[in-house]
Fold this sequence. Notes:
By secondary structure, the protein is α/β, with parallel strands linked by helices. The protein contains ten helices and ten strands. The protein has helices at about 15-30, 50-55, 60-75, 90-100, 120-130, 155-170, 195-215, 235-245, 265-275, 285-290, and strands at about 5-10, 30-40, 80-85, 105-110, 135-140, 145-150, 175-180, 225-230, 250-255, 280-285. The protein starts with a strand and ends with a helix. About 30% of the residues are buried. Belongs to the universal stress protein A family.
Amino acid sequence: MIAIDAMMVCLDLSDIDEKLVAFTRTICERLAVGKVYFVHNVKTSELSEDFRETFGDVDLSKEVEDNIADIVAEHFTGGCDHEILVSEEPNTEVIMAELVKRYKIKLTLLGKRMSDKSTGALGTKLLRILPCSVLVFPETASYKIGKVLTPIDFSDASVHALRLSKNLVDQLGLQLEILHVYRLPSQYFPLISEEKAERKAEELVKERFKDLQKRHKEIAGVPYTLVRAANKSIAERIIIHLNKGKHDLLVLGLKGHNPIPSLSLGSVPTEIYNTDINIPLWLVYSEEVIK
């Protein structure tokens, strides 16, 4: 059973806030969530002198808190225990990471607008710095989730994401599909037959699936699909498969933080996050990786 002791919802005072709060309510209705923290940081470094001169000593945090309280009252009726946290710090990513540690947050919900409305820079920074799993909810996404896709590369991180996905679908009565995107060593063509190489590659991958199913019997009956990357990136192939299969949730395992910030998220999750997909994206860390 999936239980989330503490969950953080990042709000930015835009139109997507109402959707995030409503989606949070559906999560609380379907999963065991202990407490939800609705958070917003007033970035003091971005407040202009004109603003200060016009509004003087206005209690901006209180105004923001009241605004969030109104949204929560309207869209979170029937939700679980919750609290609103508003801060005034120069660095939003740092304060959010501190909140995750302070309140032992297990999952952060992050909204994402389409690329023609936002660069997504803050979201990318948060993904790289938050020491917890992150559920990204695009503004065009639906609350209804019936079919889940979990790509794996047979790493411990992807297997962890797969087992979480299986628990989720069993708990909520959903459908699950596993996807593996593989590449062929094209530098050896035409020394070997491309058709033969593809056949051999699929045989090897199927053997790895058999071994995985022996070690984790709970996923033995889950259907899986093998897709060759060919002239596309792995992320592009995943997105193409998403669109074909009409999935409602994408779950990806994250391997851990690299000391170099630009490498900490991984190329596949980064590319998918920066693409305008219209379903939620659950980026999963295992407890061992977070520790």
